[in-house]
Write a sequence for this structure.
């Protein structure tokens, strides 16, 4: 009943009456039924919507822990979830490349927002050889992601005007927490000796991270995990590892480690030992219910892991003493 109630104003009104005393309630001003259904794609977007919408929405994320959004194809269940949504949020900038048709289709008859596409254009990084298609991995810079928080707040204010002040207050509080995270990132990554500020990962997900914290970022694969890395790419990076005395390279939780292993083997063949500095969360967060399963925990993990492996000074359990100790 609650679900149907949000599909049209008239239905809303009737269903709202019928549902009174049930598990859902309705705003007298708008006739909207609460909690309405917000559906999201990647967990980083889900995290924002949960923080901003608070108890007004039931938020369902489609793309789970450890899953690569570049390659993710929506299932039949996802289609049903999206069809039943009242409002949809996704990253955009072609991150969810295989969901583009589906998202275009469902957005015809309900509000759907690409949060990364709402950022100031000058904030977006171009990607090599793909003019007009900026790098989608915006969440890697918490100060940029704070802009996405405000984009979600605006969408929710328009969607549900009676609760506009509530959404805005939630968004401001959450954005402040992201800015504190950003300050932590600046502080600990500044302790890495300058010559060692090279971040080598499986795919090019860390360009915003590198810009935010002054690291040279190199991925074995391109911006999308769809393209295969060639022997040339591997050799080019092995040269850099040897030349710049890089001590650690990083695997990603949502991408196969085989290319990183090829780098380690390639360096070894040239007499250079390089370690795996840790496993970074690139396009997916940690397990739900854990600290690393939150956006802040994910970035705290990445910042702390990279800074430590490259020789910086890092608190043992990260920004708030909540990271798992390995
Ligand atoms: Zn990616």
């Amino acid at each position: 009943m609650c679900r149907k109630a949000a599909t049209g104003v008239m239905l809303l009104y009737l269903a709202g009456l019928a549902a009174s005393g049930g598990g859902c309630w309705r705003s007298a001003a708008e006739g909207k039924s609460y909690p309405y259904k917000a559906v999201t794609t990647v967990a980083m977007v889900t995290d924002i919507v949960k923080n901003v919408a608070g108890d007004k929405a039931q938020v369902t994320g489609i793309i789970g822990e450890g899953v690569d959004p570049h390659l993710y194809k929506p299932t039949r269940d996802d289609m049903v979830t999206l069809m039943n949504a009242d409002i949809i949020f996704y990253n955009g900038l072609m991150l969810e490349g295989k969901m583009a048709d589906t998202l275009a289709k469902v957005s015809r008859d309900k509000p759907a927002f690409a949060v990364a596409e709402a950022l100031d254009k000058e904030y977006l990084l171009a990607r090599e050889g793909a003019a007009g298609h900026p790098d989608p991995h915006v969440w890697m810079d918490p100060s940029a992601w704070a802009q996405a928080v405000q984009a979600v707040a605006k969408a929710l204010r328009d969607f549900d005007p009676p609760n506009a002040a509530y959404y805005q207050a939630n968004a401001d509080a959450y954005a402040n927490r992201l800015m504190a995270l950003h300050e932590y990132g600046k502080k600990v990554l500044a302790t890495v000796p300058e010559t060692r500020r090279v971040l080598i990962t499986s795919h090019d997900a860390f360009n915003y991270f590198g810009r935010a914290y002054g690291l040279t970022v190199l991925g074995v694969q391109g911006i999308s995990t769809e393209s295969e890395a060639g022997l040339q790419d591997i050799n080019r990076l092995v040269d850099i590892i040897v030349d710049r005395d890089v001590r650690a390279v990083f695997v990603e939780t949502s991408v196969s480690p085989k290319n990183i292993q090829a780098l380690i083997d390639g360096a070894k063949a040239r007499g250079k030992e390089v370690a795996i500095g840790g496993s970074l969360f690139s396009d997916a967060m940690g397990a739900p219910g854990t600290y690393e399963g939150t956006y802040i925990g994910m970035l705290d993990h990445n910042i702390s892991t990279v800074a430590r492996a490259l020789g910086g000074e890092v608190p043992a359990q990260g920004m708030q003493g909540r990271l798992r100790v390995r």
User: Anything to note?
Assistant: The two ends are 47 Å apart (CA to CA).
